[in-house]
Amino acid sequence: xxxxxxxxxxxxxxxxxxxxxxxxLMPGRAMAFYPLVGAAIGGVLAGVAALLHWxxxxxxxxxxxxxxxxxxxxxxxxxxxLDGWADCCDAxxxxxxxxxxxxxxxxxxxxxxxxxxxxxLLLVKFAALQGVLGKxxxxxxxxxxxxxxxxxxxxxxxxxxxxxxxxxxDYFRTGLTRSVLVAATVLGxxxxxxxxxxxxxxxxAVLAAFLAFAFFARSRLGxxxxxxxxxxxxxxxxxxxxxxxFV
Length: 247
Description:
- The chain is mainly alpha-helical and 247 residues long.
- The protein contains twelve helices and no strands.
């Protein structure tokens, strides 16, 4: 269990805790801890947001406060999910066949669609984050949103087949079972529980964003990839933050 948690930390954050399946362990088992790692990331963000509020930065310059929290958010994850989102935008929105889309997703270069998608997502996420940070439940929102969004990646890996069998995304699904999904679901529900009735709003937003994007990606690729999992996380976070601005 400890090794699985360590792999989840190593994959989802910048901390060097290990990412592979050393010792014959199946990396898909680590997905059970994805929401827990997300909650930890959200907790760090909430702590920094509270410090900015206490120091008066949030009152004097709310946009600066949101920018600092967002920059830390990106830094803690190493931009991994943003890279997946950008690759998805480059591959899914061009008029080419499935094989070419998969080639584009493997290309490390950033294209026009990826640049546009990245800018738009960060712009909306920044604006939504600014709105959420002004709410009394901002601390609970950050913890819950980051956790539940990572649950969506686990659900995507479990419910949808791989578009590239043998690829990196498919490799990290090895050992992913129904019990892993159940464990991730319990952790996701627990992480967002402090939001009380707003938790249902977060889950609804995450589910809507996740399913819409997953079905769209499957229609273009025949399945999902590791980049799509990252795109799901980013879109789910942005959608949940957006709806929390209004409740």
